[in-house]
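User: Thanks for the earlier help. One more: EmrB/QacA family drug resistance transporter. Can you show the sequence and predicted structure together?

Assistant: Of course, both are below.
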Amino acid sequence: MPQPISLDARTARILPWLVAIAFFMQTLDGTILNTALPAMAADLAENPLRMQGVVIAYMLTVALLIPASGWLADRFGTRRIFCLAITLFTLGSLFCAISSSLDQLVGSRVLQGMGGALMLPVGRLVVLRAYPRSEFVRVMTFIALPGLVGPLIGPTLGGWLVEYASWHWIFLINLPVGLLGGVVAYRFMPDLKSPERIRFDLIGFVLFGAAMVLITVALEGLGEMHMAHTRVLLLMVIGSACLAAYWLRAGHIEKPLFSPALFRTRSFAVGIFGNLFARLGSGALPFLLPLLLQVALGYSPAQAGMMMVPLALGAMLVKPLANPLIDRLGYRRVLIGNTLLLGSLIASLATVDGDTPLALMLLQLSLIGMVNSMQFTAMNTVTLVGLSYQDASSGNSLLSVVVQLSMSLGVAAAGALLGGFTLPGNEGEAVLHAFQLTFLCIGGLSMLATALFFQLDSKSRMAARLMDLE
């Protein structure tokens, strides 16, 4: 195992702050946008129920570039790539703020996603190589804290900015932070490179990326773009063919992007596919809830943002309970029961209407946040806990890709369902009914992952430290 590099005292103090702030920018941007979608749609003369492309563009770009982040850092140096990531994220934020059409906004979100995809993986890589194992857990815990704070304040801050300023400010606030971060990164980020030239699986990267893009665009085509069913079918078939070609090729080359051998570990295979399907519901929630509250129930942006706080608070409160519960009951029981409960709670949002008591709605959202947090922790750890040291890096990278991909698919599926249930000219109760049917379907889709978690070993218990990979 390579020895950690030597850092001067000042760099050792500043580096965790730099990576933590980058993580905060990424998590804040992932949650601050959702409450602003109706206001953005009104300003851009678009239907607020057709704005999922703005969310998907960012998530899908992040998923696409995560596999290349480690290779780029090893090839060109961590300082150069980290500074490039901050620059792209900041420029993307600026272009988002000055966009005058939906297409411009989606394109700017792609640029922003390119930066977001590189910031956190490269930052984690530097921390892994720069600190001894005795300090690594402490530093990573510090870096993970903004990941809890970002989702807590993001929706509220986004709603407040939209209501009292304009939606442009949800992107403009990134500019001073990005400028400061770029200067600090250039000064204090260690410039680490791999001593040997590592070959990148470019063909595999193209095939895997094409599969993700085509399948996601096909789902989005049913919703936002109202694409003809023939085109949707073609995109689905071509995307599936690209995915099949990738796995067939990966099975007989020396260093594929993600090796099929990873799936010989049963817990990893179950965890990856479980993540993909179980996260469809949780990925759709941050998109659907602010729209439901503002478009169907008449909440203001600030009120809708405040209503998202119980989700984050519930997630934070249940974190300390996850380890003991999984250790006592095992992964299989926790994931089967928790997945059914999560799907049921998401489906229960179909009962929300203008007469629902506020206290009941807050209780529902708090419970969803708690169950969601337990789900993420259990799925992430069961996916990685059985991998060898040699496979851990590749398995972690694939898990990160699947997390982002499943969330983008969740938004795309929610948009497609909402678009299918909403007829042109629908207003009032008809729009609310479309949301209710969408929540029922999304909750049902989330429950399907239960069949996958039945395949886990019934005696499986906690065998490693919990890892937060959100």
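User: Great, one quick takeaway?

Assistant: The two ends are 26 Å apart (CA to CA).
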